[in-house]
Amino acid sequence: MAEATTAPHDAPAASASGEADAAQRIKPPKLHPLLRFILIRIGISIILIWGVTVVTFLLTNLVPTDPVAAILGDRAAADPEIVAQTREKLGLDQPLLVQYFTYLGNLLQGDLGVSNQTRTPVLASIGQVFPASIELGIGAILISVLLGLLLGLLSALKQNSIVDHAIRTLSLIGISAPTFWIATVAYFVFFFKLRVVPGAGRLDPWITPPPKVTGLYTVDSLLAGQMATFANALGHLVLPSCVLALFTIGLLTRFSRSSVLDIIRLDYVTAAKAKGLPARTVVFKYIFRGALVPVITVVGLAFGSLLSGAVLTETVFAWNGLGQYAYRGATTLDLPVIMGVGLVIGVVYILVNFIVDLIYGFVDPRVRVR
């Protein structure tokens, strides 16, 4: 009887104890998959940026030329005492490993060094010329994406027709033609002969640049309400952007054509056609969207290459951007400038690829993070 009377009183206690044990066994909620993916990509990006610093530093310092001779000139470089003082001042007398850690420590403080030729901070100089390259690169990539994707889609839909062969021929010309030759011919024809575009530079000499906000003249002039300056800046931007975009247009045209042809043969496209959906819906909602995923990768890489490979275009059109700055640093063996430009371009590539990875999930549900 005693056991029978005490059992009901022990049951609530046992139940409460079981609930407490179960509560302890419950794991804390996991991070959202997208947030976890972003954190992982940020960690990988940091490691890649560190790798860029190593590669840039090593390749720059392993050039078989003495930068001190380039700084001093022939007469001063013949004096061993002056050479030794200069090497000590620049830290070039230290072991390579010590030089790297000194360079890395300065980077963590936002110091890219000082130009050996102009004696100006590299970071400040890059801040002045980088917006010009960004403006040119954005203009070129917009033209490339618009024309490249549309031409590639049209070529794939008209496979083996006259239109297809014509587009493929034009894309091959765009990929094969030397950029410096196209830039020179385009400048001669459209400026000197036809007078349909402004001259070299980002603005006409008599026009004052807009107040600096972003460094992009087209954007800053719009923010300042200076429509005449905007029109002039846009006119100067059109021709170099088109010249720079020709190679990327040819690349995107051929790549998007191949991607669209692969998507057309898939079962879900056949099912969409069997449902009797309008042709426009099938093309843009099913075919074009499915083909965008690999094309986006090429667009991201192309944007980075436009920034790093615009030296000849910037030279022909007197576009004072990152390409010209890197060219001047390379020809004078200005090591801080070379390393600074290499680091900036590497970071741009990493950031663009990070953004491309995030865009994948919005374009194609099949690659969304689960």
TrEMBL record:
The chain crosses the membrane at residues 34-59, 136-157, 169-192, 233-255, 286-312, 337-363. Pfam families: BPD_transp_1, BPD_transp_1_N. Keywords: Cell membrane, Membrane, Transmembrane, Transmembrane helix, Transport. Its main location: membrane. It is a multi-pass membrane protein. Residues 1-22 are annotated as: Disordered. It comes from the Bacteria. Residues 130-360 form the ABC transmembrane type-1 domain. One of its GO terms (cellular component) is plasma membrane. Residues 10-22 have a biased composition (Low complexity). One of its GO terms (molecular function) is dipeptide transmembrane transporter activity. PROSITE patterns: ABC_TM1. It is found in: Cell membrane. Belongs to the binding-protein-dependent transport system permease family. This is ABC-type transporter, integral membrane subunit. The lineage of its organism: Bacteria, Bacillati, Actinomycetota, Actinomycetes, Micrococcales.
